[in-house]
Amino acid sequence: MADREVSVVLPAYNEADSIEHTVSVTLETLAAFLPAGSFEVVVAEDGCDDRTPAIADRLAAADDRVRHVHGDERLGRGGALERAFRGSDGDVLVYFDTDLATDMRHLEELVDSVRVGG
Known about the structure:
Structural class: alpha/beta
Strand order of the largest sheet: 3-2-1-4
Number of strands: 4
Helix content: 25-40%
Oligomer: single chain
Radius of gyration: 13 Å
CATH architecture: Alpha-Beta Complex
Largest sheet: 4 strands, parallel
């Protein structure tokens, strides 16, 4: 995958019911304010024992803007995020919880803030 300006990491543990929707919303949100090819969505899957790994694999295979970082062992949220950040291409790294507790409408504001160092 080419270098990206923005990587949005989605930490995921047993999120089979929500991960597909969350990835879709994240991609739509990023595409609304960033040029094509300048962003990626990274599913930081953390040793799940449900269908999350298979769903993340399928999403990544179908769309080159999506990447799946798989963890065989459970590291917890912090460990999964660290692993995903290390493997991300973006100059700007942000994360959102997969339950979308923070509304995606704030993503552009967050990215702009990181860009200017605020």
